[in-house]
Amino acid sequence: MIRFAKYHGCGNNFIIADEADVAGQDYSRLAVSVCSMATGIGADGFIVVRKEPALEMVFYNMDGSRAPMCGNGIRCFAAFCYDNGIQTAESYPVQTLAGEMIVNRISTDPFLVKIQMGKPSFRCQDFGVLNGAENFLNQRLETTEGAFTVSSCFMGTVHTVVWVEEFPSETAASQLSNHPVFSEKTNVNFVKKIDSATLEIKTYERGVGFTYACGTGACASVVMGIREGKTDRKVTVQLPYGELIIEQLADGEVTMTGPVVKVAEGTYIQDR
């Protein structure tokens, strides 16, 4: 039996466990098990809180694949750490496979967190496009439902941004995510511009499918919007279950501010 808690950030939901409670487990298999909607608890991802030698977020998608970072996930991670007395400081670092992220707690009721997400990289070699080019911006990719103009970057993990008037089907999204030009697949963000300070985004996450929210995807979308002159440097991202405030500072650093809600806690009984 495993103690767990479930949190969501703007609808993007996660099962979280202390590493002490999952010692010796295969995290990849456990992620598939607990995230299953049919036979598990049900979630978009699984997070293990590692406390030694430093506080670290160990993140897995629902299909068992490990991802370097998750923007909504790290806010939920921060809430779990606060609720369990693991880390109650207002500001502190968290280690991830994408590097060190800085958590800044804004309030506890509601639980609101600002994360320093780092700087984007536009180098193909950083996000698995090995076509010999320096970057992958404004490229045209074909799907069975038509061609899309896409731009990609690394923002904690690989992201591809597509500006649209209407959100496409899951078929087109899946084909872009799994396009052979991306050696490690890609997350795909379909972005509607409401105005220069407001975006609406729908993200197809590799290993998950369409989700209600994606923090790193929101960051990547705003970064692309700024780069292309479509948005201001501070943008409100509208999502079905909340809003994120994304800002790119003068030095290129990206911050994300958003809410966290605790959904449940309990004991997961594993199949034998």
Q: Give the ordered list of helices and strands.
A: EEHEEHEEEEEEHEEEHEEE
Rg (CA only) = 18 Å
* Structural class based on helices, strands and sheet pairing: alpha+beta
Low-confidence regions: none
Q: Count of DSSP E strands?
A: 16
What would you say this structure looks like, in words?
- The chain has 272 residues and is of the alpha+beta class.
- Helices cover 16% and strands 44% of the residues.
- The chain has a 16-stranded mixed β-sheet that branches.
- The longest helix is centred in the N-terminal third of the chain and has 13 residues, at 71-83.
- The radius of gyration is 18 Å and the shape is globular.
- The mean pLDDT is 95.
Give a brief outline of the structure.
This protein has 272 residues and is of the alpha+beta class. The chain contains 4 helices and 16 strands. A hairpin with a 2-residue loop joins strand 8 (139-143) and strand 9 (146-154).
Offer a few descriptive terms.
272 residues; alpha+beta; 16-stranded mixed β-sheet; 16 strands; 44% strand; globular
Outline the secondary-structure elements.
Elements: E1 2-9, E2 12-18, H1 27-35, E3 45-50, E4 56-61, H2 71-83, E5 91-96, E6 99-108, E7 111-118, E8 139-143, E9 146-154, E10 158-163, H3 170-177, E11 187-195, E12 198-205, E13 209-211, H4 215-227, E14 234-239, E15 242-248, E16 254-268
Parallel strand pairs: 2-3, 10-11, 12-14
Antiparallel strand pairs: 1-2, 1-16, 3-4, 5-6, 6-7, 7-16, 8-9, 9-10, 11-12, 12-13, 14-15, 15-16
